[in-house]
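Form 7-S
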Amino acid sequence: MIITQKKPIEELMAMIGDAANIAILGCNSCATACATGGEKEIKELSAYLEAHGKKVVATAIGDYCCMNMSTKSCMKKLAAANPDAVVCMSCGDGVQVAAKHINVPVYPSNNTMFLGEALRLGVFEEACHLCGNCVLGKTGGICPISRCAKSLVNGPCGGQKNGKCEVNPENDCAWIMIYNRLEALGQLDKLAQTRDDKGYADVSYPRTINIRGKK
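Output:
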């Protein structure tokens, strides 16, 4: 799940500026789960904008704002209302998809934080850096890139104290977690395996993946 947080409303209003007629696009997937872009949040933002002199001319919610074709359909509906600007209540990818399909500014209402997991309702934890070279099979299913503050791939730094990270003492040391997990799995021998340093040149941005092959 892509985790988002609402931008301060003052920041959003500054982006909107003098635009008078506003359309709003929400996302029925990750942003809804994060309470940053579902039906409830669309209604709340609409009411706020109307109360501050803006006119909300249209709203829509896509199943996944990151999906090009379905978002294109939503944007046709919004474009028909002739807005001066669109507020997109999704992750940054959804904002970019929406912006492709309308010739007015599209502004993000959210900050895109990380790819994470829902620990419980309203509590999210970063889980994956989307680095393109997964080592989870060697680390007991615990990602050292996202869970270790230094993204170390061959063991701990030595700075942990009482099992906690020296960078952020609120976090458990990722490599102690990995050790304990591998021990429980009977796979401690994997700790002796040397892992190559992360070669980020292989996943330099921007990336494109085509599973359909050349056409």
